[in-house]
Design brief:
The protein has about 350 residues and is an alpha/beta fold. The protein is about 30% helix and about 25% strand. The chain has eleven helices and 17 strands. Strands 3, 4, 5, 8, 9, 16 and 17 form a seven-stranded mixed β-sheet that branches. The protein is globular.
């Protein structure tokens, strides 16, 4: 089978399309033909060796994937029955369309601790499979787990964003950012977004953002105070009720100055630096809360797929590319020329 592999850290020149052995599913596993794999912001960081995590090399990138079951390992029922289309005891059958939950308990995540999904076939624990409803394409499904699953857990489970609240999303043009914008709007919030580039800003408006801040032209904290007023100790409230900041770095300290009294800062990462300068006086003076959020839940993935099926949520896909163009897609991600999720299509021209 074909797979994208890198054996050492560096740039996209390290990505190589290779023939590798097809995996053999073990007990409790299914063999899935990958029809769509999703690139994420962590993929260039893993490739560059910039995360501080130990990466087992050689590595295959991508965490997200959607496809169809083509086999089962030992302990997953009579292979003959499954091949005839009958349900295996797992509740799945050969030919079922499935989404792969990228995180395997006790082993880690595809593309980080485990060779990823940018390949034609992958063996996955059956417990990590989620049925894809009718009407949801493989590409839309593959856009969901890391980006939208993370956004849902952060916006709803951890952040408890409510109707009428004022929400600022930094890094709004990436996969997680698009998800946060859509889900905050779904909750009934008034949403301001940050981004650069005319096409990205227009896409944010089309996505439903109430306010778009061009960070190439404006200082975002000042823009927020212009929109919603200055946070105050007493009297009329100002500032954002919720700020989604998984950028970190130089954006962290200014975010606190734009956060309302009693406001909540949500974070699930630090793409621009994990050790920022801060001023903790804002935390006690304005009784602000910083809330960490990590990953997603299976129940969340099921809900997101249901919303995608009924059309109430449309996962944003930037582009679909054949596996031969993975390096170009990765470079586009590095250059921040992506809006939403980049999808790789193994085994067929996109």
């Amino acid at each position: 089978m074909k797979a994208i592999v890198y054996e050492r850290h560096g740039g996209v020149e390290e990505l190589e399309l290779r023939d590798v052995p097809e995996p053999i599913p073990g007990e409790g596993e299914a063999l899935v033909r990958v029809r769509a794999a999703g690139l994420n912001g962590f993929d260039p960081m893993m490739l560059a060796g910039a995360t501080g995590l130990r990466v087992p090399l050689p590595m295959i990138p991508c965490g997200d994937a959607a496809g169809e079951i083509v086999g089962f390992g030992a302990g997953e029922g009579d292979p003959g029955a499954a091949e005839d289309g009958d349900d295996a005891p797992t509740g799945f059958a050969i030919g079922d369309r499935v989404l792969i939950d990228p995180s395997i308990p006790g082993r880690g995540m595809f593309g980080e601790a485990i060779p990823g999904t940018c390949r034609e076939v992958i063996a996955v624990p059956v417990g990590n499979l989620v049925p894809i409803p009718e009407g949801v394409s493989f590409a839309r499904a593959a856009a969901i787990p890391v980006a939208y699953g993370t956004a849902l857990h952060m916006i709803e489970d951890r952040g408890h964003v409510r109707a009428g609240e004022k929400v600022l999303v930094l890094g709004a043009t990436g996969g997680v950012g698009c998800g946060c914008v859509q889900l905050a709007k779904r909750a009934g919030a008034e949403v301001a977004t940050c981004g650069r580039g005319a096409f990205k800003l227009e896409r944010l408006r089309a996505l439903g953002a109430d306010h778009v801040i061009d960070t190439a032209e404006e200082v975002f904290a000042e823009a927020v105070r212009g929109l919603w007023g200055r946070p105050r100790y007493h009297g009329e409230a100002g500032g954002a009720d919720v700020i989604v900041n998984y950028v970190g770095g130089d954006t962290w300290a200014p975010s606190l100055t734009a956060l309302a009294r009693g406001g909540r800062m949500l974070t699930c990462g630090a793409t621009a630096g994990h050790d920022p300068r801060t001023d903790i006086r804002y935390l006690w003076s304005f009784e602000q809360t910083i809330i960490g959020s990590d990953g997603w839940t299976r129940e969340g993935l099921v809900r997101l797929l249901a919303w995608a099926a009924d059309g109430s949520l449309v996962p944003v896909v930037h582009a679909e590319r054949p596996i031969e163009e993975t390096a170009a897609a990765m470079q586009e991600l590095i250059d921040r020329d992506v809006f939403g999720k980049s999808i790789i299509v193994p085994g067929a021209a996109a």
